[in-house]
Amino acid sequence: MPRAIISPSVLASDFGQLSAECTRMIKGGAEWLHMDVMDGHFVPNITMGKSHPSCTLRPRLTAPGAPILACVSKGVPGIFMDCHMMVAEPEKWVNDIADAGGALYCFHLEATTDPLSVIKLIRARNMKVGVAISPDTPSTAITDEVANAADMLLVMTVYPGRGGQKFLERCVSKVADLRARFPDKDIEVDGGVGPNTIDACAHAGSNVIVAGTAIFNAPNPEDVIATLKATVNT
Ligand code: DX5
Ligand code: ZN
């Protein structure tokens, strides 16, 4: 199984200190930062909306979240932004997220009828490709062709749309299915993951761990990051 990668979800961070929060996580041992982009269509909420008033960088960017990601990219040199695109029409935002410094573009299978075309667009902009499934989508919806064209598969363990929800245990079997089919692929879990739920995720075979409230609300985030990492790597 690939090694552990911890990707704290900045949705749970202090947005007024976004760059500092990301830097704090990297210093605490996180490899990636998970950027949740919501458009108000694919999911009801909007995050990292497109007209952030205090952001003066790259004003031409129009993707949901892109101006904010561009600010973070500039403020935290070398950051790996794991962009979770909870958006309709994911093909529309590939260029803006790439311009903003996104390193991985993860779109939802439910949001497109032509995942291979979306993957081609992402590859053309030299970003890594992630394909996400929501709780009601079976793992079999990810065909071998799509999985083999992707770098990472994301199994949502809550319904996409907001942080701080309860972990859905029933999604874990999908991780195990995918790990059996794709032994070398990065498999990410997202939603309600923390020290209390990591055992099931790691045992099923996920290696990319997203955690928002469990990390940012902890008195010592670096301890939580270390625990999550050690559980996956043992
Ligand atoms: C939910 C988001 C998650 C969320 C995770 O729609 O995709 O990334 O921020 O937050 P926690 O870890 O608090 O469930
Ligand atoms: Zn997410």
Task: Characterize the structure shown.
This protein is of the alpha/beta class and 234 residues long. It has one domain: Alpha-Beta Barrel (TIM Barrel). It is built from nine helices and nine strands. It has a nine-stranded mixed β-sheet. The model has no long low-confidence stretch (mean pLDDT 93). The structure holds D-xylitol-5-phosphate (DX5) and zinc ion. The site of D-xylitol-5-phosphate has 22 residues, from strand 2, strand 9 and helix 8. It catalyses: D-ribulose 5-phosphate = D-xylulose 5-phosphate. Homodimer. One of its GO terms (biological process) is carbohydrate metabolic process. Catalyzes the reversible epimerization of D-ribulose 5-phosphate to D-xylulose 5-phosphate.
Strand content: 15-25%
| Spatial strand arrangement across the major sheet | 1-9-8-7-6-5-4-2-3
What gap, in angstroms, lies between the N and C termini?
A: 11 Å
Helix content: 25-40%
Shape verdict = globular
